[in-house]
Amino acid sequence: MNNNLLAWLISTGLDDQRAELYLSALSLGEASAKDLAEATKLGRTAVYDNLRVLEERGYVRTLYQGKRKVFIPLHPKELYKKFDQQKEQLKDLLPDFLSIYAEKGKTPFVQLFTGVNASREIYEDILKSGVDEYVYFTDPQFAFQMVDRKYIEKWIVRRVEKKIKSRSLRVQSKRKTGVSVFDEEEKYLRKIRSLPAYVDLKSSVYIYGNNIGVISTQKEGVAFIIYSKDMAYSLKQLFEFMWGISK
Question: I want to staple 24 with a disulfide (CB 3.0 to 4.6 A). Which of 15, 39, 89, 153 is the partner?
């Protein structure tokens, strides 16, 4: 028996017997309970009990051949799809899990993202957060270095479809980008004010719900999300103060 495969199956939530039973079924292709009992050295009752659980979880299925009942293991490629789909489902549900954690948990935590699409994690998290509005400090010049323009144009449309409003404080000398989808306010549910002339920024900071998203410069090439109710509250207060004194 391949110990690496066995260990991985156990890590997915199967116990030793069920993991071994699935691998035995996989090696036989299709097998009766008697065949599997002989292959695993388990009693017939234990085999039936474990096969019932494996079938409920989608690892095997039952096929009737006349009066004979055989068990077919999930194909390895289907097993890959099964966990890939679960991963995607978890990714979609992650903001919901995190919002519960941020509300109930006492310890904040940080997710760090790297690579050419690191900044997208922030934008996708905003859409999934369920907020009615997000606010942010930005220098558009640095922001556009970290995100693909076509992506962000489509993202803005998605944001508007979800009726998520935005308010931004932008570096005064770079407030206007010259592109309506980034500058026009009412149509895109946004309000823009300018930071005082002496303020400069080296990253973009987004505050939404109990979360803070930070997109750094192209030089650093990172983005990260901080999940902290108190820190998000404090930064939001700073934003509101700066909003109140900005043009």
Answer: 39
